[in-house]
């Protein structure tokens, strides 16, 4: 019989383990030389590097719509913490240091969370959508991602998806964080807000960057391996000179090989190889 981890013994043991991980992350940050972004400004920086909107409430197969609706409240609360944050040169943006812990006492509701590849409800559920959007905008910039946790599985079929599969990130307070560093020579800023059923965001900077950035997905398909299906694709980032339109680099940023966790009948037949 496989020996249980301490966190698997009981709900109380799990809570103790979570608190331990939170304390360890806080200690690690305290001991590090990283400088975290904390300043906010109501004045938007002049240059839009990347903007994006994503629908908030989607009909996901087998998921209680109430959890999706509660997510809107959670996102609105988190927007108040993130909107307007300035990341100065040399500073690091931390998702959880900016938002803080999402608790019932702060007004957060039960939303959808993913834990160990399984779906369940939890207070603050759905906040990964904002992390996904911020990451998407950062990928379309010269900023440097310093902490990222990919979703390993394909949990849902596409429902109004507008970005390449797999370009999101997992977040869980606070040891599963999303972070990026501003290694450029000018300030950058994140604006986020909710409007007409969408989460909207802008990544802004003080000046125009010399390069353009674009993400493309290639060779997307589904494949059967044994008795399971996998979603497969490659995501590249194209770096182009803004003045000459010359392609400077094609960078492989993601090699997807994700197990399909939803009903196989929902896989489009024309995408199976």
Structure report:
- By secondary structure, this protein is an alpha+beta fold.
- The protein has one domain.
- It has 4 helices and 13 strands.
- The strands form 4 sheets. A 4-stranded antiparallel beta sheet has the order 1-10-9-2. Strands 7-13-12-11 form a 4-stranded mixed beta sheet, with no helix packed on it. Strands 3-8-6 form a 3-stranded antiparallel beta sheet.
- A hairpin with a 2-residue loop joins β4 (110-115) and β5.
- The longest helix has 21 residues, at 11-31.
- The chain is globular.
- The two termini are 39 Å apart.
- The mean pLDDT is 91.
Helix and strand arrangement:
Elements (H helix, E strand, L loop, with lengths): L10 H21 L15 E9 L9 H18 L2 E3 L4 E3 H5 L10 E6 L2 E6 L4 H12 L4 E4 L5 E2 L24 E3 L6 E8 L2 E8 L5 E15 L2 E14 L5 E14 L13
Parallel strand pairs: 7-13
Antiparallel strand pairs: 1-10, 2-9, 3-8, 4-5, 6-8, 9-10, 11-12, 12-13
Mean pLDDT: 91
- Largest sheet: spatial strand order: 1-10-9-2
End-to-end distance, in Å? 39 Å
Structural class by sheet pairing and helices: alpha+beta
Give the number of helices: 4
Instruction: Round the Cα radius of gyration to an integer and report it.
Output: 20 Å
Number of domains: 1
- Bulk shape: globular
Low-confidence stretches: none
Tell me the series of helices and strands, N- to C-terminal: HEHEEHEEHEEEEEEEE
Strand content: 25-35%
The description of the largest β-sheet is: 4 strands, antiparallel
Number of strands: 13
